[in-house]
Amino acid sequence: MNFDMARHCHHCGWEWTFPGQPGRSEQCLQCRSDLRVCLNCVSYDPRAAYQCRDRRAEPVSEKDRGTFCEYFEFARRAFVAGGGSQSREDAAREQLRKLLGD
Q1: Which of 87, 81, 91 is nearest to 8 (CA)?
Q2: 20 to 30 A from 61, CA-CA: which of 69, 80, 101, 102?
Q3: What is the mean pLDDT of each run of 10 residues along the chain (102 residues)?
Q4: What does the pLDDT read at residue 100?
Q5: Is residue 15 packed enough to be buried (19+ CB in 10 Å), middle (13-18) or exposed (0-12)?
Q6: How many helices (H) and strands (E) does the chain have?
Q7: Residue 45 CA to its chain's centroid (Å)
Q8: CA distance 74 to 6
Q9: How far apart are CA 16 and CA 54, in angstroms?
Q10: What CA–CA distance (Å, rounded) separates 25 from 7?
């Protein structure tokens, strides 16, 4: 499976190879997680207001549940196991420790 710049399940990394966007009720064929979710959208940004860069979108409280958002666009990106749980600050600290030999 090629995870580089692919559309994939935010939970397990299964690659979405079908044309178009998933519907609200479509689930990952591997782990059964919803696919049309904020965590899979190009506009999802944990640092933005309501964690969405699209100002037209209605706020969604459950980012891992199917959404009716009309602005959803399945993101193409590299899969990071664990959902990229390491924050930018933690990543910067880790790089600094490596640089300083700590």
Answers
A1: 81
A2: 80
A3: 74 91 92 94 92 93 92 88 59 80 74
A4: 84
A5: middle
A6: 1, 0
A7: 9
A8: 9
A9: 23
A10: 17
